[in-house]
Amino acid sequence: EFRDCFSLFAKEKFITSREQLTKIMRSLAFSPTMFEVDRYFGEHSRDNRIDFATFISILEKQLKVEKCQKDIIEAFQAHDKDGTGFVPASELRHILTQFGDKLTPQEVDKLFRDAGVQGAQVKYENVINCLLTPIQE
């Protein structure tokens, strides 16, 4: 399936643009951001061309990124008992400061500000977007 899709869109046996890379990845049900596509093309193209083997390694990287996103969403959904898309802010603050790679209270405050958290409930889609948005250099 990957080779067929690659061959369909990469007529010259190479991906030669970011647009082509995006189209092929999305045709295969991947959801890269434009930032990710730019990074992949910049890191993996040689003479502005990506061959099939290199394309497969890009897909492997993207698969890991998208699995991480899925895992984060599932973790939030486990705490969203009513399926509303919200979790209690106090519960999220406790989890972020007490488990795993612990955040400081100041880091949680910044995350909440960046995600537009106001009040007792957190729309976790906003938090996920903040967590997964690459930092611009």
TrEMBL record:
Key words, A-Z: Repeat
One cellular-component annotation, GO: myosin II complex
Transmembrane segments: none
InterPro entries: CALM/Myosin/TropC-like, EF-hand-dom_pair, EF_hand_dom
Record CDD domains: EFh
Domain EF-hand positions: 67-102
An example Gene Ontology molecular-function term: calcium ion binding
Name recorded for this polypeptide: EF-hand domain-containing protein
